[in-house]
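Thread: quick sanity check before group meeting

JM: Hey all, I'm pulling together slides for Thursday and realized we never actually wrote out the predicted structure for the chain we discussed last week. Dropping the sequence here so it's in one place. If anyone has concerns about the input, flag it before I start.
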Amino acid sequence: MILRRVIQHVKKQEWTAIWIDLVIVVVGVFIGIQVSNWNAARADDVRAQAYLLRIQGNLNTDIQNMERRKVYWTQVIDYGNNAINYLETGELVDGSAWKTVLAFYQASQLWPWATIDTTYQELRNGGELGLIKDERMRTALAQYYIEGSGDDVDYILAFQPEYRKIVRGLTPTIVSNQIWEKCFELPNASEQYLLDCESPMSEAEAQTVLDNYRKDPKLLSELRFWVTNQEVAIKVVENTRNLGRAMLERMDNAVK
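JM (edit): ok, ran it. Output follows.
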């Protein structure tokens, strides 16, 4: 329609009308581009909000899992320190050979942890981190997911102790079966609990198990190393948890 009108105006040499038509065309193109850009920006904002909501969910799960790990690892440390005390002083836990055996075994428990970073990696690998316009938010995300992990952190949080192999190799099957049936609870993949339980053997039999533990030349040093590792792991997750909480506070203002 506009093109035919311009042609007619050119034939009639109606220059004013031609300029008006050109202005209409230019303005129309400009408005069309602006509307297209606005729609694209709006779509990007919607996608960014969706990503941030997913990251919020990941962070909340991370924090919950870290809190549970801290409780669990603290139990492992307490059991480990009781076992160390027995090896160093001969003092039984609450005067019970069975409770001391239980301490040795529960001290070998582990529960690795790693951040849930699927959404962040999706953003990063897809080259879409730019969807998050707040540069400080992007920096905070990188600090949490990249600087808060790495080989050193992974080594600490996923460490498989030699102590675990030693003590379980020295523990009679009747003991390990009792512990897994009565002294350990796994309601689901995100929950684990260490429990006290009754003994499956006499105190004399439990003392024999302890005597075998004491005979192993590597057990004490490996147990000390494992307890120290768990203490460091707690400090690592505490720092990461603080980063996660700060991240959530920032997101509360960013997510509409």
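AS: nice. Residues 2-254 form one domain. The two ends are 44 Å apart (CA to CA).
JM: adding both to the slides.
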